[in-house]
Amino acid sequence: MLPALSPLWSAASKLGKPVSDIFDEVDEELRADRAKKLLQRYAGLIITAAMLVVAAVGAWKAWQWYQARETARVANIYLSAMREADAAGAPEHQEALSGFASVSAQGLPGYRTLARLRAAALKADSGDLPTALALWNDVAADSSADRLLRDLASLEWAQHQIDSGDPSLLQARLKALAAPDNPWHALAEEQLALLDLRLGKTDQARTSLRHLAQDATAPNGVRGRASGLLSRLGG
To answer: What is the pLDDT of residue 24?
Structure first.
């Protein structure tokens, strides 16, 4: 037996315990002592870290509350502007435009997009087509806006200048929207047919209108207008 282990054997004999238990107890005491020293050494850091976690959670909760409050505030402005837009008369429309401008500047992406689309429609109705076209163009180019609404803005931009706009620009916009998987494809095809008529491409327009009149996926209104126009063209 090694001399250094003799005291342990003696202690184990007196306590009636196996030597392995004595080793375990010594090891636990050493671990506890090391843990105590580490805690004393890094207590400040641990407390600071805990405080930072609590502060971060509190800040996140505060930010969520602020966002919810701002969303509700902007929603109220938007709904108020919508009511004013639906009312008749220029004064109400001016207040509506002011509300939509406020939402466009402060709202979340969805509200900003809807506000610009509604403002563009009001501008077009009041005869201010250049401003309306600029707003539609702005939405169409906004990568943060929903794709469906961006395409709607492009369609509106084309529809409102189908009789006077640059044919090459109109065709480029409308052909992109006329893809079969695009939700606006029927309306885009209708505008392309009207553009063909404007350019004197009557046969091409008849072909497009005949396709639209028979397209079961097209809205009823589009099919009806295509059939009516086709009849007038002798198609």
So the answer is: 57
**Three-class SS state of 16:** coil
Tell me the mean pLDDT per 10 residues along the chain, length 235. Answer: 48 48 56 68 71 76 69 76 72 79 82 92 91 96 93 97 95 94 95 96 94 92 93 81
Q: At what angle do helices 147-159 and 129-140 cross, to 10 degrees?
A: 150
**Distance in angstroms (rounded) separating the CA atoms of residues 28 and 34:** 10
Domain chopping of the chain, boundaries: 71-146, 161-235
Residues 6+ apart with CB under 8 A from 188: 155, 158, 174, 175, 177, 178, 182
Is the CB of residue 145 less than 8 Å from the CB of residue 139? yes
Task: List C-alpha distances in Å: 7 to 10, 11, 151.
Answer: 5, 6, 88
Q: Give phi and psi for 28, each to the nearest 5.
A: -65, -40
For the record, the structure tokens of 61 come out as 């909760």
The single-letter code of the amino acid at 25 is: E
pTM of the complete model: 0.69
Residue 201: helix, strand or coil by DSSP? Answer: coil
Helix ranges (DSSP H) in the chain: 6-15, 19-86, 90-106, 109-125, 129-140, 147-159, 167-177, 185-198, 202-213, 220-232
